[in-house]
Amino acid sequence: MKRVTIYGAGAVGGNVAVRLASAGVAEVSVVARGAHLAAIRERGLTLVQNGQRTTVQPAAATDDPTDLPPQDLIIVTLKATSLPEAAPALAALRAPGAPVLF
After folding, report:
1. How many domains does the chain have?
2. Are the beta carbons of 77 and 9 closer than 8 angstroms?
3. What torsion do the CA atoms of 28, 29, 32, 34 make, to the nearest 10 degrees?
4. C-alpha atoms less than 13 angstroms from C-alpha of 60 in its C-beta half-sphere
5. pLDDT 10s digit of each residue in the chain, 102 long?
6. I need a surface site. Which of 13, 34, 46, 50 has the fewest CB within 10 A?
């Protein structure tokens, strides 16, 4: 697995992104929006667990999934109400045969 996108980098998606990126198992990108996206671009993503702080800078942080190359795995952590709007972008972002995890 090479390229992974977390589609919806809020609390759950941010947690997953930090864990994957800090483990070095993949090139991790995130799709977010608004002020949250600006903060990720400026400061990266930080996970605080048991008093330990881990900060990573995603390979890419965008609100436009078409900015990213085809991905080997997409992990979707959006709220269910956002899925219909995101479906076309998810299809375009997915490399042939790549899984999408909801």
Report:
1. 1
2. yes
3. 120
4. 17
5. 699 999 999 999 999 999 999 999 899 999 999 999 999 999 999 999 999 999 999 999 999 999 999 999 999 999 999 999 999 999 999 999 999 999
6. 50
